[in-house]
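Supplementary Methods, section 5.1.

A reviewer requested that the exact input to the structure prediction be made available. We therefore reproduce it here, unchanged from the version used in the analyses.
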Amino acid sequence: MNVQAAHVAQRIRSELIELERVLQRIQEGWKRAERAADDFYLDSVALNLHGFYSGLERIFEVIASNLDGSRPEGENWHQQLLDQMAAEVLEIRPAVISKSSCKSLGEYRGFRHVVRNVYTYRFDTAKLKKLIEGLPGLFQELCAELSAFADFVEKRP
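The structure derived from this sequence is encoded token-by-token as follows.
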């Protein structure tokens, strides 16, 4: 295994640990918001949902830059990067994530955009609830996919 591959695998594993912490903060913030009926907790939940997707995107950028040799640019680069991770790159790597994970992540990518561009008091709590409820299963799926990909990277010559 070369140094670059070792770096990519290590980065994936360390980001997954951080993402698990973010997931816990999202869940705790949501519980507090429900108990206290205090929408200020929703700001925390939204910020951590933003952080969750951004953490995944950092992983994807490391893979694109270090293994694929190209990272999307331009206006729609966030969606292109997500699509790139769901596709095999011939003779370089298998798909990093499944098509179903890609589709699910599209909702979190869209929400990340909302967090960056909308006042927090305008968040749709029903939309937040849907994202939060889907997150544990999605994270479990992503952990399996990204860990398998890190294993692949470590084993390749």
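The helical segments are 3-36, 40-68, 77-85, 99-117, 125-155. These observations are discussed further in the main text.
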